[in-house]
């Protein structure tokens, strides 16, 4: 944690299962093909990676969860890091929790949503790889995920459907970030005055 950049600009964390498409989404949103390293093999991203965008805000690429070939020790270390990061990072404005739109609700995704909720960390749900299956399957999986969340949550977070291949969801997510950045600047100003 002590090695992270100074908490001076609004920041957005990308988290989700290994291979869900975090690094690809970062590249799609920023329009830079190989900013974040991607791989067909899960477990590519191993550290907390900060990318400064337009000198104004940070995108944070995180190592994913649910990768089977990880030792107990590494998993414990990852959990400690996540607890510190999501619980303490002052400039973390919002987390993008990525969910694979091809799958029915997965326990580790629901657990992570609850984990963020317990820490009081705001998040949105971003369904990835929507180009891979038909729209009706995606809609069905989104609906099932919402239904599962409703068991524990009164209010559901905003939901975005995306594809890093077709750039679906790009405008919507960027305009969400822009709104949050404006709000962050406003609050900072009010706090200072
Ligand atoms: P880790 O860093 O290992 O946790 O994975 P990650 O979540 O960063 O996934 P990454 O972006 O590396 O993508 C994993 C694989 O999924 C790569 O082969 C990508 O090309 C593919 N992929 C990611 N997003 C999409 C998408 O929207 N559509 C399709 N068709 N493939 C995608
Ligand atoms: Mg990655």
Shape: globular
What order do the SSEs take from the amino end to the carboxyl end, as H and E? EHEEHEHEHEH
According to DSSP, the number of beta strands is 6
| Major sheet attributes | 6 strands, mixed
Strand order of the biggest β-sheet: 2-3-1-4-5-6
Low-confidence stretches: none
Can you give the mean pLDDT?
93
Task: Set out the fold topology.
Blueprint lengths: L10 E6 L5 H9 L18 E5 L3 E5 L10 H17 L3 E9 L6 H13 L3 E6 L6 H16 L8 E3 L8 H23 L1
The chain binds guanosine-5'-triphosphate and magnesium ion.
Describe the structure.
The protein is of the alpha/beta class and 193 residues long. Helices cover 40% and strands 18% of the residues. It has helices spanning 22-30, 72-88, 107-119, 135-150, 170-192, and strands spanning 11-16, 49-53, 57-61, 92-100, 123-128, 159-161. The protein has a 6-stranded mixed β-sheet, with helices on both faces. Strand 2 (49-53) and strand 3 form a beta hairpin. The longest helix has 23 residues, at 170-192. The mean pLDDT is 93. Guanosine-5'-triphosphate (GTP) binds at residues 16, 18-24, 38-40, 42-45, 63-64, 128-129, 131-132, 163-165.
Protein traits:
193 residues; single chain; 18% strand; alpha/beta; 6 strands; binds magnesium ion
């Amino acid at each position: 944690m002590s090695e992270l950049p100074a908490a001076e600009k609004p920041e957005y964390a990308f988290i989700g299962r290994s291979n869900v498409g975090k690094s690809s989404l970062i590249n799609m949103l920023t329009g830079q093909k190989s900013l974040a390293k991607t791989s067909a093999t899960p477990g590519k991203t191993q550290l907390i990676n900060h990318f400064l965008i337009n000198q104004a805000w940070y995108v944070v690429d995180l190592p994913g969860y649910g990768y089977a070939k990880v030792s107990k020790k590494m998993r414990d270390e990852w959990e400690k890091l996540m607890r510190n990061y999501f619980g303490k990072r002052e400039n973390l404005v919002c987390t993008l929790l990525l969910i694979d739109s091809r799958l029915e609700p997965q326990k580790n995704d629901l657990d992570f949503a609850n984990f963020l909720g317990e820490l009081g960390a705001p998040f949105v749900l971003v369904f990835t790889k929507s180009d891979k299956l038909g729209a009706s399957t995606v809609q069905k999986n989104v609906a099932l995920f919402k239904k599962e969340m409703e068991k524990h949550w009164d209010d559901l977070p905003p939901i975005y459907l995306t594809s890093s291949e077709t750039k679906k969801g790009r405008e919507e997510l960027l305009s969400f970030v822009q709104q949050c950045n404006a709000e962050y600047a406003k609050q900072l100003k009010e706090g200072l005055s």
